[in-house]
UniProtKB/TrEMBL annotation:
GO terms for biological process: cellular response to oxidative stress. Pfam families: Nitroreductase. PANTHER family: FATTY ACID REPRESSION MUTANT PROTEIN 2-RELATED. GO terms for molecular function: oxidoreductase activity. It comes from Fusarium falciforme. It comes from the Eukaryota. SUPFAM superfamilies: FMN-dependent nitroreductase-like (SSF55469). This is Nitroreductase domain-containing protein. Gene3D superfamilies: NADH Oxidase (3.40.109.10). Residues 9-84 form the Nitroreductase domain.
Amino acid sequence: MADKFLAEIKSRRTCYSLEAKSPISDARIVEIASEVAKHTPSSFNCQATRLVILLRDEHVKFWEIAKDCFKATMPEATYQEYEKKLLQRQAGYGTVNAPPKTRKLLPPGGF
């Protein structure tokens, strides 16, 4: 029974549509993300976590750049497989990302 449960967990996926609107203000999004970064555990409590927050037009521009980079660095057939995922992410309201150095400080799975 446990093996079947673990197999189900490993194959589970969540699929939902993102949309370019938010029920909360941009200022509140930044405030929440800032508080999360501030209180993310860190070595010696140095609070070194930094976030990049892109909303609205900056978010769309970021995903345009990402699509251009993917397209320039992989075969067309491979890009076609990724394009749908990139477009799904671009359809959202914003992007919050931690630079690679910061990601090492975050708990497994991020926040």
